[in-house]
Design goal:
Layout: H1 4-10, H2 14-25, H3 31-38, E1 46-51, H4 58-71, E2 76-82, H5 85-99, E3 108-114, H6 126-135, E4 140-145, H7 150-156, E5 161-166, H8 172-184, E6 187-190, H9 198-211, E7 221-224, H10 233-248, H11 255-281, H12 283-294, H13 300-310
Parallel strand pairs: 1-4, 1-5, 2-3, 2-4, 5-6, 6-7
Helix pairs in contact: 1-2, 2-3, 2-6, 4-10, 8-9, 12-13
The structure holds guanosine-5'-triphosphate (GTP) and magnesium ion.
Amino acid sequence: VGLPLVERLLAGDLRALARAITLVESASSSRPAILKEAYPATGRAAVVGITGPPGAGKSSLVDALARAYRRRGERIGIIAVDPSSAFSGGAILGDRIRMQQHHGDPGVYIRSMANRGHAGGLARATPDAVDLIDAAGFSIILVETVGVGQDEVEVVDGAETVVVVLVPGMGDDIQSLKAGIMEIAHLFVINKCDRGGADRVETDIQQLLSLGSWEGRWRPRILRTTATTGEGVEGVVGAIAEHQEKTRGATGAGHRRRDLSRARFLGLLQERLLLEVRRRVGAARLEAAIDEIASRRIDPYTAAAAVAAEAGLGDGP
Ligand SMILES: Nc1nc2c(ncn2[C@@H]2O[C@H](COP(=O)(O)OP(=O)(O)OP(=O)(O)O)[C@@H](O)[C@H]2O)c(=O)[nH]1
Ligand SMILES: [Mg+2]
């Protein structure tokens, strides 16, 4: 076999890497073949998700982390995930400009991506891009997603270590974020500490953490930074390394990795099943069911059971 593109990627050719990511992002028919060939070379990079509310300083922190890792001689990949390319193109553009300072450094690979494949595919392209950057030999991959919300929780799900960036003065916001955030965060970074007020946020986070039971589990750490000056960033690097070691080491037993593999695999299976159902009953049948549900002529459960039965799956409603 041997796809020349993947062979070049594995040899560290960055143009091949960019091309391969574009192919997987556009849900090209070569996507499975590319992943199949690259996959054995993956699993080496530390994959770190950076999320948090808009403007919290995620990009600034990514930038500061990138410098810290470059000082250590690590090769670093950065993915900026655009949740809805329609309206946050500006933020990504700003990030691009900021990242130009790394331009010409082959040890830093920067890529922005739409959340979903262009061709309407359900499966997210981000984990594929992570794999390709990993296979190309980058040792740290930082994935920045915009905003903490339902959608973003899923995206950072592809990361082994999830960093949630918060800022002083969030007050009630932390309360409203809590449920989802406590489940996904491994590290809380209180950024913009130069502005003061960090104690209050830290107390709020501690309080929420005290409600959880962390026995035998990683208890999320709380760190403080001023991303714009780099203050506290070494502490974040250390905590990321500690979390990676714990989750990858004997005690972590690879649970995190297995959870991520499960979510990805089941997601792909789900997509495949949906495509097969659509192929069997026709896209028009699905649209008709949607119309019926919207106009309350049928409930969604009955409709799903009926369509599945028509596709030869199950006995119907
Ligand atoms: N004072 C202060 N300002 C900061 C700090 N970190 C970031 N900023 C500023 O906050 C603003 C937003 O920073 P970004 O890094 O773009 O924040 P972001 O979370 O990536 O924003 P989005 O991607 O748009 O959600 C910028 O003007 C930064 O210069 C900090 O530690 N202290
Ligand atoms: Mg940003």
